[in-house]
Write a structure and sequence with these properties.
The protein is mostly beta strands. The protein contains no helices and eleven strands.
Length: 114
């Protein structure tokens, strides 16, 4: 069983920055792909960023060049640095371990508004 705890969300102004953090409790954490997804009201859940098992990263088109994902296997953390935030980034963000059929955090709200 894998448990994920997210932190760092809240309200930020357009153009601002925010970091989301996820702490996992998982055996063999380093063998899992890890990532962040988001879901805005009335929309489907979409990929924000992920780190694949081989270490390659993959970003959603909407966030390329603005967001950076990183992980620390020793600490079992996955962080998402978000810069140049836009109102359309407003959503509930979910930490993920093991892909879409894997494990999910409870979700954390990010609101970008002036």
């Amino acid at each position: 069983q894998v448990q994920l705890v997210e932190s760092g969300g809240g309200l930020v102004q357009p153009g601002g920055s925010m970091t989301l953090s996820c702490v996992a409790s998982a055996r063999d954490f380093s063998t899992y792909s890890t990532g962040w997804y988001r879901q805005a009201p009335g929309k489907e859940r979409e990929l924000v960023a992920r780190i694949l098992r081989g270490g390659n990263t993959d970003y959603g088109d909407a966030v390329k060049g603005r967001f950076t994902i990183s992980r620390n296997n020793a600490k079992q953390t996955v962080d998402l640095q978000m810069n140049s935030l836009k109102p359309e980034d407003t959503a509930v963000y979910y930490c993920n371990v093991g892909g879409t059929l894997g494990y999910w955090g409870q979700g954390i709200q990010v609101t970008v508004s002036s």
